[in-house]
Amino acid sequence: MNFNQLKYIVSVDKHRSFARAADECEIAQSTLSKEIQRLEKEFGIMIFDRSRFPVTTTMKGADLIAKAKEILENQRHFIEIARKINNRPEGTFHLGILPLLAPYLLPLFVSSLAKRYPELHVEIREFTSREMVTHFEDGSLDGAVTMTPFIKEGYYEEKLLQENFVLYISPKHPLFEKDEVKWTDIPLDELILHEDFRHYFLPGNKDGSTFPNKRSNNIQYESGSLETIRKIIDLNGGLTLLPELACRYMGERRLKMVRIITGHDLSKTISLVTPRGFEKSRITKVIKKEILANLPVK
Questions:
Q1: pTM above the 0.70 mark?
Q2: pLDDT tens, residue by residue, 5-54
Q3: Where does 165-266 sit in CATH, by number?
Q4: Fold of 88-163+269-294
Q5: Digit-coded pLDDT (tens) for 58-110
Q6: What's the rounded Cα separation, in Å, for the pair 227 and 114?
Q7: Which CATH architecture is the domain 3-83 placed in?
Q8: Cys bridge to 242: 67, 155, 246, 282, which one at CB 3.0-4.6 A?
Q9: Under 8 Å CB-to-CB from 269, ≥6 apart: which residues?
């Protein structure tokens, strides 16, 4: 038995496919299959039922895979402790970030992080809050920059900044003539909002949805970049909410389309969220430090 064999059975269990597991483990499918067969032969146990499609984990196999995950987690923890000897964070860190923050926050710190810690490999992907939960649970995400409180309890939340949100409005809209806009004057059913904005800013209805019952805008934007929404408004009209950080990247013409919102607190806490019992805490501290060091002074 070896660590690679344990990694292979965990991957097959995850994907329910020998082919996809081989791709994830970056080996030939034939090699992966032979190694799993050797493990099964060593202990006289059939881990997978290969007669079914997709591949099914046997009851005895499920017990072994649960223990394999625990062993691999301890292995990663051991490696992390060993690497602390040279006092330099290194390895791979999978970082998620909300699409509504990514275009404005990432440019502030990614360059300095790469230069200061060349041994560190940070893989950054944009996820909605719900997608973050899924990736945290399957172990493919190490940390996430998101609005808090996080949508699921049981995670560490380290505050990065308190961000205000502003109204971005087309000159075609009647509210454009106002220097400031009251929250109660904003037609919420006209707001073109990202999925995460609806979760954090709009009150829920009795049916659990976050859009008001009456909608004049029949376009519901589920995911992607706020820059896409902004360009839709530039071309077709409408209004949305943007983090104040977005104003740093606007020219004079677009800054004229920004309005401060009064009568309602729209500031949100942006945090670095990580799982509890997290073995990459040193890398988390480094990433948090770089973000804080490069935030604009308000």
A1: no
A2: 999 999 999 999 999 999 999 999 999 999 999 999 999 999 999 988 89
A3: 3.40.190.10
A4: D-Maltodextrin-Binding Protein; domain 2 (3.40.190)
A5: 999 999 999 999 999 998 888 777 766 666 677 899 999 998 899 999 999 99
A6: 25
A7: Orthogonal Bundle (1.10)
A8: 246
A9: 147, 148, 149, 159, 161, 162, 163
